[in-house]
Amino acid sequence: MSDSANARQHMIDGQLRPNEVNNEVIIAAIDSVCREKFVPKNLSGVAYHDNNIPVAAGRSLMEPMVFARLLDAANVQASDLVLDIGCATGYSSAVLGRLAEAVVALEEDTELVAMATDVLAVESCDNVAVVKGPLGEGLAAQGPYDLIFINGMIDQIPPILTDQIAEGGRLICVLNDNAIGKATYVTCENGIVGKRVLFDATIPEFESFRKKEKFIF
Q1: Domain boundaries, the chain
Q2: Which of 83, 101, 93 shows the shortest CA–CA distance to 163?
Q3: What superfamily in CATH does domain 3-209 come from?
Q4: Does residue 158 have a cis bond before it (omega within 30 degrees)?
Q5: Whose CB has fewer CB within 10 Å in the chain, the N or C terminal residue?
Q6: Which is nearest to 84 in space by CA: 98, 66, 96, 71?
Q7: Longest dimension (CA), the chain
Q8: What pLDDT is attached to residue 216?
């Protein structure tokens, strides 16, 4: 077993399974993606550590355990069209691509778009398309989506995103609740949006979703 494969197995056995991620389909998808390829070369040695890994200014790859638990809750189906918001270097999109029919990887940082496009091509993620655009607006032109997966903590879910959830679809995110991250499962049934809190989670916040300060005169 190679060093990276060994590190990946330790991540699965030491971080994912003890935190109730035991769905073998998800485990296999995560095991099939070389996480070290999606981080800066100087950080490849810590790619499988239980931390958020910085990949650009203000941007990180989500901690493996939190990512896996969100993925587990998302209940990705083989027929799903997924919008992966804030894909960064493309790691989350690569894993989602192992589970879904197609993934639209949305990223607003030009350098990250280029990196994600290159790495996903090298890793033969042929069902993933990287698109540059504002994270908070989603990509309505390619929707609606069976699953919208948001890779950073957000202050609020803009209606423009819930409008892009397909009937019977869902959105997975981490909401900022007074500085405490709450992993949240959002559904859309008959035009009614519902929310359910899943667990506490600490991940970097997306500036694109930050609430604007209101000035009182």
Answers
A1: 3-209
A2: 83
A3: Vaccinia Virus protein VP39 (3.40.50.150)
A4: no
A5: C
A6: 96
A7: 65
A8: 53
